[in-house]
TrEMBL record:
<dbReference type="Pfam" id="PF02518">
    <property type="entry name" value="HATPase_c"/>
</dbReference>
<dbReference type="GO" id="GO:0005524">
    <property type="term" value="F:ATP binding"/>
</dbReference>
<feature type="domain" description="Histidine kinase">
    <location>
        <begin position="233"/>
        <end position="362"/>
    </location>
</feature>
<dbReference type="Pfam" id="PF10436">
    <property type="entry name" value="BCDHK_Adom3"/>
</dbReference>
<dbReference type="GO" id="GO:0010906">
    <property type="term" value="P:regulation of glucose metabolic process"/>
</dbReference>
<dbReference type="InterPro" id="IPR003594">
    <property type="entry name" value="HATPase_dom"/>
</dbReference>
<keyword id="KW-0418">Kinase</keyword>
<keyword id="KW-0547">Nucleotide-binding</keyword>
<dbReference type="InterPro" id="IPR039028">
    <property type="entry name" value="BCKD/PDK"/>
</dbReference>
<keyword id="KW-0808">Transferase</keyword>
<comment type="similarity">
    <text>Belongs to the PDK/BCKDK protein kinase family.</text>
</comment>
<dbReference type="InterPro" id="IPR005467">
    <property type="entry name" value="His_kinase_dom"/>
</dbReference>
<keyword id="KW-0496">Mitochondrion</keyword>
<keyword id="KW-0067">ATP-binding</keyword>
<protein>
    <recommendedName>
        <fullName>Protein-serine/threonine kinase</fullName>
        <ecNumber>2.7.11.-</ecNumber>
    </recommendedName>
</protein>
<dbReference type="GO" id="GO:0004740">
    <property type="term" value="F:pyruvate dehydrogenase (acetyl-transferring) kinase activity"/>
</dbReference>
<dbReference type="InterPro" id="IPR036784">
    <property type="entry name" value="AK/P_DHK_N_sf"/>
</dbReference>
Length: 369
């Protein structure tokens, strides 16, 4: 019954329009371009940006809506997947029914609309995770989830695209903010200190560890706090938070009942000519070599799945110490979005090193799935 919803609530002409726009070519932008363009948010620049998004967003959203309808193993029919697909179709309809943007008043109205679209999609990640959960529950228990390559590849494309869509909308919306802070261009900080961001992210992760376990290992940060480069602080905060949270959990669980003092988690920030690298090292016992490839998949977590505990995702956005196994793969996508990467190297029986590479040049185009 639920699978019929697309045809019932969305007209045939809209679905045809989705397929037409889904075939159009996407246009990628770079961090440097966003930064240079947004450094002068004049009415003319905001108008150009609005007109670009008016054409670009429907293309990106249509591609995802089509894909959500054609997933393998019956994932498209799962109630949570249908919910996500309907959000994408609603957003596509809103964008397509918005008239051509001719002046700054049109642009202001358009900005309010895309702001609402961004809010509509706030819960896409946990809802899609729930869809995958629903799929797993109905599958043969003998199936090895890590082998479901098509699902992993789809989720990589899907979440990477989502990062791009949210970056474009968020950047445009933020450019309207009167009196921005010094060195801030929309979402981008032109003089971001990675040491400072790592410090904030670590404090947040440590607070969660304290709340969950009653104690937390120390965190030592090495690097020059005065070193800065242009980047999106919220993206870096998310990645470092996720990696430090994992390290704290591993160390805490390994030393919880030990009479030894838990060793600190170490964060090292290194500045290269091309890359800024952040290394997060722990002595939490490491990951088995057979388990290492799994940490970048979406169907694997060593922790209890919080989606089993609550399914009403509309109201709950709590952060737990261990997520639904999405933190690491999504952090890697955030790194890749601006030309970086995330690598994890482990010594079983000792600990894990995560290397977060960030492009310092800011000139790589968005990867467009």
């Amino acid at each position: 019954m639920a699978a019929k919803k697309a045809c019932e609530s969305f007209s045939k002409s809209l679905i045809e329009d989705v397929h037409k726009w889904g075939c159009m070519k996407q246009t990628g932008v770079s961090l440097r371009h966003m930064m240079e363009f947004g450094s002068k948010p004049t009415d003319r620049n905001l108008l150009i940006s609005g007109q670009f998004l008016h054409k670009e967003l429907p293309i990106r959203i249509a591609r995802r809506a089509i894909e959500l309808d054609t997933l393998p193993y019956g994932l498209s029919e799962k109630p949570a997947t249908l919910k996500v697909r309907d959000w994408y179709l609603d957003s596509f309809r809103d964008l397509r029914s918005f008239p051509e943007i001719k002046d700054i008043n049109d642009e202001k109205e358009f900005t309010q609309m895309i702001k609402a679209i961004k809010v509509r999609h706030n819960n896409v990640v946990p809802t899609m995770a729930l869809g995958v959960q629903q799929l797993k529950k109905g599958m043969d228990p003998k199936i090895v989830y890590e082998d479901l390559d098509e699902i992993h590849q789809f989720l990589d494309r899907f979440y990477l695209s989502r990062i791009g869509i949210r970056m474009l909308i968020g950047q445009h919306v933020k450019l309207h903010k009167p009196n921005p802070a010094p060195h801030v261009v929309g979402y981008i900080h032109t003089k971001m200190s990675p040491v400072e961001v790592a410090k904030n992210a670590s404090e947040a992760a440590r607070a969660i560890c304290l709340r969950e376990y009653g104690s937390a290992p120390d965190i030592n940060i090495y690097g020059d706090p005065s070193f800065t480069f242009p980047y999106v602080p919220t993206h870096l905060q998310l990645m470092v938070f996720e990696l430090v949270k994992n390290s704290l959990r591993a160390v805490q669980e390994r030393f919880m009942y030990s009479d030894k003092v838990a060793p600190p988690v170490r964060i090292i920030v290194a500045e290269g000519i091309e890359d800024v690298t952040i290394k997060i090292s722990d002595e939490g016992g490491g990951i088995k070599r057979s388990g290492l490839p799994k940490i970048f998949t979406y169907l694997y977590s060593t922790a209890k799945n919080p989606l089993d505990e609550y399914t009403d995702l509309g109201t709950d956005d709590r952060i737990t110490m261990a997520g639904y196994g999405y933190g690491i793969p999504i952090s890697r996508l955030y790194a890749k979005y601006f030309g970086g990467d995330l690598q994890v190297i482990s010594m079983e029986g000792y600990g894990t090193d995560a290397y977060l590479h960030l492009s310092r040049l800011g000139d790589s185009q968005e990867p467009l799935p």
